[in-house]
Amino acid sequence: MSEIDLIYHHYLSYPTISTDTRNITPGCLFFALKGENFDANVFARNALNLGAAFVIIDNPAFQLDDRCILVDDVLTTLQGLARYHRSQLRIPVIGLTGSNGKTTTKELINAVLSEKYRSFATKGNLNNHIGVPLSILSIKSDTEIAVIEMGANHQKEIEFLCGIAQPTHGLITNIGRAHLDGFGGFEGVKKGKGELFAYLKNEKGTAFINQDNLLIREMSVAAGLDHLIYYGTEGVNFITGQLVKSDPVIALNWKGRDEYFSVQTNLTGAYNFENILAAICIGAFFNLTVEQINEGLAGYAPKNNRSQLTKTESNMVICDFYNANPSSMTAALNNISSLAASNKVAIIGDMFELGAEAPEQHEEIASLAGKSGLNTVIFIGKHFYALKGSHEGEFFNTPAEAMEWMESNPVKDSLVLLKGSRGMALEQLLPLL
Questions:
Q1: For the chain, what is the radius of gyration of the CA atoms?
Q2: Are 115 and 293 within 8 A, CB to CB?
Q3: How buried is residue 258: exposed, middle or buried, by Cβ count under 10 Å (0-12/13-18/19+)?
Q4: Phi, psi of 72 (to 5 degrees)
Q5: For the chain, which terminal residue's Cβ has fewer other Cβ atoms within 10 angstroms, N or C?
Q6: Domains (range + CATH), the chain
Q7: What count of Cα atoms within 13 Å lies in the side-chain half-sphere of residue 15?
Q8: Which residues face 209 on adjacent strands?
Q9: Residue 275: which of 235, 243, 227, 311 has the closest Cα?
Q10: Are 415 and 333 contacting, i.e. CB atoms less than 8 angstroms apart?
Q11: What tens digit of pLDDT does each residue of 297-310 get?
């Protein structure tokens, strides 16, 4: 019996995976991963004491008894186990990537599909070389369809994740200016995200294409994909939709063959229209009824600080501070500019992983903010602070400095956009709004 066969045998009896002793559940398998600042091998005994059935380690010094399975590399083993588990599943798997909107689109697709199927979707943001294997290993035997989000910040990463998730269907939400440093510029982003199309081509898979997005269309043609399902606002599509309103939440009309149907969502931001249309397209492709699709959309309420509309005692806040890049920041500023409100405030934080393009990209966003009809703009972070004096607004190096200013200058009776990269931790400002 091979190493993977042995561990998979245990996995079938103990199908819960843990990589953190703080989340140990009785009867789980604990994988002792290494990181830059930790080595979980040292927690092997603790994991067993907390109830883990087996621990997978790669340091023989921590092999206590036959409940410790020694492997060459724990991470590679975790990935191999996930790859093997995926090969045992006979279900459609929708692979999802893109520069913006991945998580919201994934949640929308899952909300729709769950109206008909026992569906699974990536939890939270588990979309990297560790998160994707953990997601695959969370798919139970009775699951009928799965949606796996795949993130990347360098080339060949999507290709690698596809090898684990083995998607039968796929969607690239868009190509934007994100992770420019790791990808080596915008063309590198295109190439990296396009690895999903290359995989689907090789495996004779199906791709869902936003016909309104010329770049995605061109990429699908270049990849030579054989099975394409189109959605959009114009042209010949499997699903065609029209945005009705987006102030403050999105309502739209959509049709398959002939008749138009209407649905109102709980999402703000016109930029989410295409994400909603993708979910409709995928739901219709998998034979959901109009009623099931609309119920799934209408019932979804964002709770992940992405396009989330939150009413506080003093303001209406667009909570969109899970992450940011120039593309998503532009969309967010254009959105608040289009909304009706007597007083509008944008609180925006630095955008990370832009490499040499960081100064130029922050300059462009600061210029856009100044043209967006906002009453107040509050810039936070070293890149934005470097622009102090050349743009109107309040500038702060850190969120703590901004909080101190806001305590003396409270924001009230306003529509507020709160957006920045995850590392800026702008959620700490929310109690002051």
A1: 23
A2: yes
A3: exposed
A4: -70, -40
A5: N
A6: 3-77 (3.40.1390.10), 89-299 (3.40.1190.10), 308-432 (3.90.190.20)
A7: 10
A8: 230
A9: 243
A10: no
A11: 999 988 877 778 89
Tokens standing for 272? 């989410």
Is 70 exceeded by the pLDDT of residue 182? no
Return all residues near 7 (Cβ < 8 A) that are at least 6 apart: 29, 54, 56, 69, 77, 81
Position 363 scores a pLDDT of 96
Rounded to two decimals, the pTM is 0.89
Task: Return the SS3 of 346.
Answer: strand
User: Who's near 150: CB < 8 A, 6+ residues apart?
Assistant: 95, 96, 97, 127, 132, 158, 161, 162, 165, 196
Alpha-carbon span 231 to 367, nearest angstrom: 33
* Higher per-residue pLDDT: 248 or 51: 51
Q: Which helix (H) or strand (E) holds 430?
A: none
CA distance 267 to 334: 16
DSSP bridge partners of 354: none
Amino acid 36 reads E
The pLDDT mean for the chain works out to 93
Please give the pLDDT value at position 180: 67
- Provide the token pair at 146: 């799965």
Q: Examine the pLDDT at 177 and tell me if it is beyond 80.
A: no
Other residues' Cβ atoms within 10 Å of the Cβ of residue 24: 19
What SS3 class is residue 260? strand
Whether the bond into 359 is cis, omega within 30 of 0: no
Q: What is the pairing mode between strands 239-245 and 251-255?
A: antiparallel
Distance between start and end Cα atoms, the chain:
59
